[in-house]
Amino acid sequence: MLLCVTASHKTASFDLLERLSRHPDTVAPTLVEAGAQGAVVLATCNRFEAYVETEELGTEAVVDALAQATGIPSDDLDGSYRIIDDRRVAEHLFAVASGLESVVSGEGEIAGQVRRALTGAREQGTTSPALERLFQRASQAQRKVKNVTALQRAGRSLVRLSLELADSRIADWSAERVLLVGTGAYAAVTLATLRERGAVDISVYSPSGRAELFAKKHGIRPVPAAEYAAVARRSSLLITCTTAVEPVLGPAQLQHAPVAAGATEARCPVAHGGSQLVIDLGMPRNVDPAIAQLEGVALLDLETIRLHAPLEELQATDAARTVVREAAEDFHVATSRESVTPAVVALRTHIFGLLEAEIERARRRGDEHGLVEQAMRHLAGVLLHTPTTRAHQLAAEGRSAEFLTALETLYGLAPDAGDATAAEIA
């Protein structure tokens, strides 16, 4: 059975999502240790989801394991998550991967995050065959949505939306003094989007020490750690997008040092006389919310961005959801066929075993031209066609247990799920 525990911007506060996202690497191993066959965790700036394959763990046990791994009491989680199970899991993940459940419908970053979630589970050894198939099919569904609908052309990324919101404060992007904090995939997207809008004065700082390499690759200025606070105070636009679990920008970096007695205090934090705009794209948050109380500093964080997200483009969204539903149904049909594969293989093996014995007996009786063998092989194929087809039909209807029961009743065959690992069904 597949389960998904999902907390997102639709069900949980950003504070809780931030707490959940602090240590995502501990969740999947904890779920597997608790008895799950596999687990994949998807942690993004707007959602935290655990996809679990389990036969023994109930939903309560899964949530308890999640609470244990994140250090968040179960009571604090109550009301902030949904449990999705069985056939609904595939459609949900396919919709998530396609951007249908994002703050900005159709945003493109989520597809890569879904792929990286599976890669991370592989590296931790917590994935399973069922979850592998589920996540691979999710990527296929996302690509189809992208290719056959206008959703991602209509949708905008969080980076693009945040800079559109900043337009009301910025008259000339080429005059902005920009400090980018972070050097990951989001930082690269942010840099490209800044340049599209005309920004040219851009520096980069990396809390993990990667600024120089990133700056050299992208043709911008690196900021050494010793100069970080000074550059931050001089910048008119600061954008943070790191994976740090603690804030990397706060009052300590933006407040000026006390002025000497008799000196004139600089009231404005920016050297060229404007105000500062700080955009925090991190989850957990990269910026201490206290900076919003500083004079001349405005903070735009993910929660604010969410409130300004545009209405979905209905036609594109409807078309995309149709693609997702069809992809989910195809996944269930394929999965159902796989569920009866061992039984069909067992039946065919049983029948062909009897067939070979009868063919050998016919040869001993003088079937020199093979006519009897040919007729018997044809008859066996005809007899197997209907039960094989019926098995797949029953499986697609969720009734595979009926075929398994009939097979055991009529032939005494009770195949294990692993019996058909290498078998091919004609």
Please describe what this structure looks like:
With 426 residues, the protein is α/β, with parallel strands linked by helices. The protein folds into three domains: 2-154, Glutamyl-tRNA reductase, N-terminal domain (Beta Polymerase, domain 2, 2-Layer Sandwich), CATH 3.30.460.30; 158-307, Rossmann fold; 340-420, no CATH class. It has 17 helices and ten strands. The strands form two sheets. A six-stranded parallel beta sheet has the order 7-6-5-8-9-10, with helices on both faces. It is elongated, with a radius of gyration of 29 Å. It starts with a strand and ends in a 15-residue tail after the last helix.
Short description:
The protein is an alpha/beta fold and 426 residues long. It is 51% helix and 12% strand.
CATH topology of the largest domain: Beta Polymerase, domain 2
**Tally of separate helices:** 17
Structural class comes to: alpha/beta
Strands ordered across the widest β-sheet:
7-6-5-8-9-10
- The assigned CATH architecture of the largest domain is 2-Layer Sandwich
Rg from Cα: 29 Å
What's the overall average pLDDT, rounded? Answer: 86
End-to-end separation: 27 Å
The coarse overall form would be elongated
Catalogue the unreliable spans. Answer: 257-273, 418-426
Report the CATH superfamily of the largest domain.
Answer: Glutamyl-tRNA reductase, N-terminal domain
Largest sheet, described in full? 6 strands, parallel
In which range does the helix fraction lie? 40-55%
The amount of beta strand, in percent, is 5-15%
Number of strands: 10
Q: What string gives the helices and strands in order?
A: EHHEEHHEHHHHHEHEHEHEHEEHHHH
Supply the CATH class of the largest domain. Answer: Alpha Beta
Number of domains: 3
